[in-house]
Amino acid sequence: MLQSGAETYRAEDTMARMAEAMGLEDSHSFVTPTGIMFQASESQSAKLARIIERTTDLQKVAAVNDVSRKLGSRDISPSQAHIRLMDINRAGHEYAVLLQIVTAAAASGCFTFMFKGSMADIIPGILCGGAGFSMFLALHRLVKVKFFAEFSASFIIGLLAVIFVALGMGQELDKIIIGSVMPLVPGLLITNAVRDLMAGHLVSGLSRGAEAFLTAFAIGAGIAVVATIF
Amino acid sequence: MASLSPISIILHLITSFIASAAFGILFNAPRRMLLQCGLAGMMGWITYILLATRLDVVFATVVATFIVGVISQLFARLHKKPVIIFSVSGIIPLVPGGLAYDAMRQFVESEYNLAIQLAAKALLISGSIAIGLVLSEVINQMIIKLARLRRPAKSEIKLPLSQPPKDKPSQ
């Protein structure tokens, strides 16, 4: 659940609810974006789980939430719930990779318009966004360093945007770039970080903030390299 | 942009809808919820666009996210799904990703004064997004509690229907 981008308090809440449904009264959990600690009761030892990869997968969040709800209302037994959770864990992305790239491209085009780009900028925005996002997906699969994938994706975006403007297909370089980096940009992470901080989850707020900062830095650096070349 | 023509408003509606729904796909939202994701994003963005021409950007963001939050709570109730599905896709158009990127670019190009300005602005806007979301959540909880006090645990499903009028005065 945490790997799929749920808020920390939601993960804590879900665990508490599940534990209560199974008859464990005094369970404790401590959740940060990089690890979960959970103690079922005073007499048992605590368990630790490490979270290595973090993405956003709302499908999984919804599915786990559903299981915990049903467990809470005694619709399913703990063993059934366990089987379902395992199924959820194994499930992949619901949408095909091609569809993801197409939607990323469409979103880029829309953002180019929404951020006051002119009509002529929309098509380059779509192309740059699609190329950048497919680059990101491909590299992220090859190398497990997210930073590098983000850096090269934004590099490609910058390069393509410069070429399009030079060819006369687009007008405003800035708008095209901003529109097409939107699928990569960590806006959601920043917001989540601030939200965690406000809710008093200081550790998770800071670590999410650091992650967002790194991502933004990678993207900014990728574009800046292009900007310095031309 | 001082005033918006009806055509550009319609274009903004369409583009923000597509963008939010597209992010729903990128975030792997359940297939049946994509329409609602897009709707939440659309309402938020149109509020923002209409308010940002007259008011401060930060305030416009707070109001827009508040509306996104209320809509998300409503959809969450109706479809029995966690709120985050709708709110995440809904706030995407409002999120200062462009600003954060811009700030970083200025840093990398060693334009530090401008970079700090932009970064501070991005931080403020993301703070206001968080405030808007928390605000809608708090109000939602208050309504639930008040309703429980009045009629103990009976009319929980009907609540969302009585919710929309509540956010009108704050607009």
TrEMBL record, chain B:
Q: How does it sit in the membrane?
A: Multi-pass membrane protein
Pfam families linked to this entry: ThrE_2
Q: Which UniProt keywords apply?
A: Cell inner membrane, Cell membrane, Membrane, Transmembrane, Transmembrane helix
Similarity comment text for this entry? Belongs to the ThrE exporter (TC 2.A.79) family.
Domain named Threonine/Serine exporter ThrE is located at 13-139
* Species per Swiss-Prot/TrEMBL record: Paenibacillus lentus
Domain of life per record: Bacteria
Q: Where are the transmembrane segments?
A: 6-26, 33-51, 57-76, 83-103, 123-144
Task: Give the CC-aspect GO terms.
Answer: plasma membrane
Say yes or no: keyword Cell membrane present. Answer: yes
Question: Membrane: present as a keyword of the record?
Answer: yes
Which GO BP terms sit in this record? succinate transport
Quote the protein name from its UniProt record: Threonine/serine exporter
Indicate where this protein resides in the cell. Answer: Cell membrane
